[in-house]
Amino acid sequence: MNAQTQKSTVAGPAGAIEAALDAPAGPSRGVAVIAHPHPLFGGTMDNKVVQTLARAFTQAGWTAVRFNFRGVGASEGTYDEGRGEIDDMLAVVQQLAPAGALALAGFSFGAFVTSHVFERLQAARPIDKLVLVGTAASRFAVATIPAAAHAQTLVIHGEQDDTVPLQAVLDWARPQVLPVTVVPGGGHFFHGQLPLLKNLVVRHLG
Length: 206
Prior knowledge:
Elements: E1 6-12, E2 15-22, E3 31-35, H1 48-59, E4 63-67, H2 83-96, E5 102-107, H3 109-121, E6 129-133, E7 153-158, H4 166-173, E8 181-183, H5 194-205
Helix pairs in contact: 1-5, 2-3
């Protein structure tokens, strides 16, 4: 993302996982682990939305960790329809954010994975912030976010997303009474609206 980006390798369940760390300008509030879009459709940790999320977290004082799911970039293994990818993200959290304040974020397929990582971890340790962008609710079974976690959760979706219809996210959020922040005119990749997306996340992070 920038000259200060540190590359790292994590031992994952399917082999090595490629990761990148960006530190904030001052003391770190904690570690934010960010998941990328679908591996079979060009999704990588260098995706523009993923990098925008990383910039938002570092601006807000967090250390941002991006990583490539199995079979993407230098990460070993092959695509596993979300199951193995959940394990990949858990391995990254366990090794690069083993203690201290933790935030989780994801975009598209990565938001689906992040919801399940949150579900797995919430009983074991506090998770300070959860950010789900372009959540792939029309394609995958996104985990339910407990009511007690709604205050630290930000769900953002583009009004005109033609990859994941807004209606699918509202249908997922409605039974939970989980608010969804809608970007008017926004598409799946938020072309021309990445600064707005970043500002919404920074505001949520306080």
